[in-house]
Amino acid sequence: ALAILLTCLVPGGHNQTPRALQESAVPSEVLSREQAYSLVQPSLLQDAKVSNLSESLPRSSSSEPPLLPVCAKPADIRHVFKYINTIVSCTIFIVGIIGNSTLLRIIYKNKCMRNGPNVLIASLALGDLLYILIALPINVYKLLAKDWPFGVQVCKLVPFIQKASVGITVLSLCALSIDRYRAVASWSRIQGIGIPMWKAVEVVLIWAVALVLAVPEAIAFDMVELSYWEQHLWVCMLASEQKSSFMMFYRDVKDWWLFGFYFCLPLVCTGIFYTLMSCEMLSKRNGMRIALNDHMKRRREVAKTVFCLVVIFALCWLPLHLSRILKKTIYDQTDPNRCELLSFLLVMDYFGINMASLNSCINPVALYFVSRKFKNCFQSCLCCWCQRPALSITPTDEKGSVGKWKATGQELGLDRSSSRLSNKYSSS
């Protein structure tokens, strides 16, 4: 996938630089702060020619410092990349809407699925659904368009939703890791069906903390006017000038804050508590009663599911954070070879943004393949939706209707035996 993006984005080899990253086309304050979740339109600066760029450069006097050298062969973003990105985003949108909505319906409708871990998974799915509905369409538009027509309110809302969604995911994964350790540590306590009150309070706290941590993002983003080919365009981006010292500090350390809290925290938390959980299981393995073997197997399956979600999160977000850290550490504006590096970093940036968006729709798919219980529930739920038109074409007499319902229930596995089977696989 990275090779395809390289072909689409850098059509002239390593000596070309994307025009969206040229210091001569945009103020240097803009380029020095290409933050994660930035809403600056890449197509804004892709059609200018080198001659026009050189003519538009201000003349420097002997007392002023010399301007940075201009990249001789700027590379445009090909339209094929826009089409590929749009297709990928539409696929993520469709799969994410269906998968997360089905996951929420399964947990809401089935009493056997209402437990502590699943309410955290439902919270994670709701956060992903919020991001897919609001932020993803805006991200597609800002790649295809130049100007920002949605106003300052939407400009602040979209990065706020993006950051809040990631915060909900991070804190939910940490809570799931802690919950799995507690479940194994208290192996003799068999939890019944239902959501404990403290678990509901935990979900509320997760959302509250995620929303509070996303407030600086809404404050930092603003509409900025840029001059481009004798046009005055308004773009939504991280403003270079902030009104308070705290926001100036946030702007400077944002990349490291994103990498530390929104990426490393769930990995460290999972590593610590899964190590403790493994030690706990090894120490109590010989003393376990045989009657609890099936119960412990179900808890291990849930632990495996949570670990899979954390691994998927790490794989989806690693490219984006890696490109930001490389931009922060090894990029030097005075280096004459910076153009080649910026070309590579832009490719990594777009690839990382698509991978990060993929995380919003892939969790239901992962649950389908990892958890037998979720797989059975997904199949039953999707089959019910597919069979719903057939149920409406039933005979009008009472006996025929009853017979049709019974037959359909047996075909879909909704009879009493399947209900007992689903209760058998219910986990704590």
What would you say about this model in short?
The chain has 428 residues and is mainly alpha-helical. The chain has helices at residues 2-9, 28-31, 50-56, 79-109, 116-144, 151-185, 197-220, 245-284, 293-329, 338-370, 372-392, 398-411, 416-424, and strands at residues 16-18, 73-75, 221-228, 231-238.
Biggest sheet strand line-up: 1-2
**DSSP summary: helix tally:** 13
Main β-sheet: number of strands, strand sense, barrel status? 2 strands, parallel
Strand content: 5-15%
CATH class descriptor name: Mainly Alpha
* Number of beta strands: 4
Topology diagram in text:
Layout: H1 2-9, E1 16-18, H2 28-31, H3 50-56, E2 73-75, H4 79-109, H5 116-144, H6 151-185, H7 197-220, E3 221-228, E4 231-238, H8 245-284, H9 293-329, H10 338-370, H11 372-392, H12 398-411, H13 416-424
Parallel strand pairs: 1-2
Antiparallel strand pairs: 3-4
Helix pairs in contact: 1-10, 4-5, 4-10, 4-11, 5-6, 5-7, 5-10, 6-7, 6-8, 6-9, 8-9, 9-10, 10-11
Describe the structure.
Helices cover 68% and strands 5% of the residues. With 428 residues, the chain is mainly α. The protein has one domain: Up-down Bundle (Rhopdopsin 7-helix transmembrane proteins), CATH 1.20.1070. Strands 1-2 form a two-stranded parallel sheet. A hairpin with a 2-residue loop joins strand 3 and strand 4. Helix 5 (116-144) packs parallel to helix 7, helix 6 (151-185) packs parallel to helix 8 and helix 6 packs across helix 9 (293-329). The chain is globular and about 70 Å long. Residues 99-367 form the G-protein coupled receptors family 1 profile domain. GO terms for molecular function: endothelin receptor activity. It comes from Campylorhamphus procurvoides.
